[in-house]
Amino acid sequence: MKNFSKVSKDWWKESAMGIPKLITETPGPKSKTMHANTTRYMKGLSSQVKLFPVCFEEGFGITLTDVDGNKYLDFSSGIYVTSLGHCHPKISEAISYWAKKLMNAHDFTTPVKEKLMEKMAGILPGKLNAIQLYSDGTVAVEAAIRAARAITNKHEFISAYRDFHGKTMGAVSCAQMYRGETYSYGPTRAAGFYMVPRPDPYRPLWTKADGSIDTDSYIRFYEDFLKEGTVGNVAAFLLEPAQGWAGSIFPPEDFFPKLKRLCEKYKILLCDDEVLAGMGRTGEWLTLNHWGVIPDIVTFGKSFGNGFPVTAMVVSEENGEALEKISASSSYGGNPMACAAALASIEVIEEEDILQNVRLVGKFFMNRMLKMKEQHPIIGDVKGKGFLLGIELVKDKKTKEPFDEAGKLVYQKAFRKGLAWIPAGHILRMSPPLIMDEKYASMGMDIIEDAITEVEKEFGYQ
Ligand SMILES: Cc1ncc(COP(=O)(O)O)c(C=O)c1O
User: Fold this and answer.
1) Is the CB of 245 under 6 A from ligand 1?
2) CA–CA distance, 364 with 132 (Å, rounded to integer)
3) How far is the CA of 140 from the centre of ligand 1 (A)?
4) Which CATH number fits domain 13-84+353-458: 3.40.50.1170, 3.90.1150.10, 1.10.1040.10, 3.40.250.10?
5) What is the pLDDT of residues 172-187, one digit of tens each?
6) What pTM does this model have?
7) What is the CATH number of domain 90-351?
8) Ligand 1 center to residue 49 CA distance, Å?
């Protein structure tokens, strides 16, 4: 089996010199024309693209280049995907090697799959080592739902308000439903899928006498809900460890340990959807590692292949038999290119000490955001761990009324200043590549702060 060599940690730095570099207005003339041509046919774009219709042509490290030659600092990693930098040389080489040697062999074993399985078993906690591979996060979540049913012989699922798990029927039944302009057509949640509130420290439903969030009340509510709101056949709590789409919302430290105890009491599985937050984004392989909790089922995606579509669903060894029962394999899952991308990505995280970088630069991000919160009347809250970050904009710090209009404007202004990113609504979400150092972290935050200041002036706050 061919091994691909380690590259210097600084592989991306030369290409980042002088960014952001804007040589036309943005989106530039070529971007506008190409976007217009494309959208004559291509429909259903995300709100971010509609608000800033730029066309990208190249990505390397932390730099994105558009078709007009403008260079942007990347604060989104695609969409939490290219977390080790665009076109990481080792990962690209590994994918192209297998693209020329063997693209698909159904789910037969290949040398690169053998290596990936060993590698994954080595980084996963506890006995999480019965693995299946897919090509979408959503499909990994669907497989997790089927596996949970097979393991428990139960069929009900509990997820949480504002969680996101994908867009197929099972996954969307565990997720925030689309509302307003983008409500979903047809049936909403499938039968047997329930949502409960989960603790958001900035907007708590239940607080203790000192005003801090009261995790125990959430857990008591869940226990009550199990008795009153279900038919007593709950297979799993299926949750994001931290809510990515909702705006980088992290639960209090005691939430998952207490939830896990509740699950054990009622023989319910804890299914941890790490598609967005896993593989180093918060400074750990699994975000649940921060709280010492080992889930029963875990899903990975996005960063897992650093841009190549490869995802995984993993259950613990003693439940591995369930994967036989659900006929777990698929057409593209675990093809050699996919395995090569995931294997090389894990090796890069180890070789470049990425988890440590995320912890260190993550602290820098948090300190900077805390300072910004003190200085800006429209910043209600800042949140995050590692490189999964959010700044919540409000009209008034006391009422905490969400400031959606400001969110949109800050997004567009920062993009115009050369920051490629993907906030949504009133929470400015940031997911920079995990290779980023303090210099560029600071540059990105300067751009965002300038944009916030301008928006505050426009709305009469300064
Ligand atoms: C937590 C989580 N789970 C699942 C998914 C679905 O992944 P995909 O878009 O690869 O199908 C997403 C996508 O954003 C996600 O954030």
Assistant:
1) yes
2) 37
3) 9
4) 3.90.1150.10
5) 899 876 655 555 555 5
6) 0.97
7) 3.40.640.10
8) 18
